[in-house]
Amino acid sequence: MRAAAFTDLTGPDGVAIVKQQTPSPGPGEARIDVDACSINHHDLWILDGASAMIDPTDLPFVSGLDVAGVVDAVGDGVTGVESGDRVVLCPNLTCGSCRFCREGPENLCASYALYHGGLAEDARVEADRLIHLPDGVATTTAAALPTAYLTAYHMLRRAALEPGDLLFVPGATGGVGVAAVQLADVMGVRSIGTSSAASKLESLTDLGADHTIEGTDPDHLRDAVREVGTPDAVINHLGGAYTGLGLDVLRRGGRMVVCGRTAGPTSELDIGHLFRTHKRVIGSTMGTQADLERLVGLVADGDLDPRIDRAYPLDETADAFAAMRDRETLGKLVVTP
Ligand SMILES: NC(=O)c1ccc[n+]([C@@H]2O[C@H](COP(=O)([O-])OP(=O)(O)OC[C@H]3O[C@@H](n4cnc5c(N)ncnc54)[C@H](OP(=O)(O)O)[C@@H]3O)[C@@H](O)[C@H]2O)c1
Ligand SMILES: [Zn+2]
Asked: In angstroms, how far is CA 138 from the centroid of its own chain?
């Protein structure tokens, strides 16, 4: 089989198409004929050599978490899926036995890890992590859901928003950002989204943002958000200076849920302001398989139409990563091996 592998961790130029042995599913596993695998900033961190998640000397590495396709073989003991089933993978890898797995939610698992290997013609996965796709849900659409929409959905649930509440999403045009805006709309929550690119704002409005702001300077964004209102929650995947900004604009008792650090791994917080205003900062990573099942249901019922900026053939995987790095995109990028 062919795979788009990371052969050097030097950015998009480090992606090469390689031939590998087609995997055979072991006990409890299934092999997927991959129709689509979306990419995430997570893959780009690895490709840039900025992730601790892989051993940089163990190359080539096949990344890709968000796999959808057709089951074409199953290993011993698999009963939940069979050849010919259309499926999407929940990329959670959990131990199933630690205190956090027992109490839930499963994404708290003490040994939590992520599946990698979807940027290839075939993928060997845990069969229990597969979700059947209803007829109306295309595999390309389903591949957009697992990381970005799952993460945004779990964050919105943790933000405990009510219909009519106001949400602030700095950097609203990428995978997690667009997902947060679209899902807020589904929940009846109003949103404010930002982008450095004026050209993306109209589309963001079409996707459900009630207010859009152009810019990246936290001082400018602080003033512009305050002109709109006082957010009940912030979805923060940027980290860095946007963390202080999020705390500043939140209402008293508001929640800021944090999942990323694109704009910086540390930030300075005003502790006195935090406790005097009863605000909450909540860390969050990915979501549960049940969350992903709900998202597939929203798509099947026509309530959610994930925004796919562009689909790329496997040979053009490096171009997809270059577009993500250069911030040329709006929504998800999907590779179709
Ligand atoms: N913990 C988790 O479970 C989890 C899950 C998913 C993602 N994440 C993290 O969340 C972040 C977003 O992931 P993603 O896949 O959605 O990424 P993405 O698609 O690349 O996000 C692009 C968005 O980020 C903005 N952006 C990019 N670089 C920026 C910068 N230096 N300053 C300000 N804004 C910037 C872009 O703004 P413009 O419109 O201005 O270009 C765009 O809105 C990443 O850090 C990722 O690792 C974490
Ligand atoms: Zn566990």
From this structure: 18
For 213, the token pair is: 């702001």
**Nearest ligand, CA of residue 112?**
2
pLDDT at 204 over 90: yes
**Ligand 2: distance of its center to the CA of 100 in Å?**
6
CB 215, CB 194: distance < 8 Å: yes
Enter the pTM of the model. Answer: 0.98
Q: Quick check: 84 pLDDT over 90?
A: yes
Indicate the CATH number of 2-144+307-336 among 2.40.50.100, 3.90.180.10, 2.40.160.20, 3.40.50.300.
Answer: 3.90.180.10
The residue nearest atom 41 of ligand 1, judged by CA position, is 327
Considering the chain, tell me which residue range(s) the CATH 3.40.50.720 domain(s) occupy: 150-283
pLDDT in tens, 254-264: 999 999 999 99
Tell which residue, 278, 291, 261, has the closest CA to residue 105: 291
User: CATH says 150-283 is which class?
Assistant: alpha beta
Q: Which residue minimizes the CA distance to atom 23 of ligand 1?
A: 174
Give the model's pLDDT for residue 219: 96
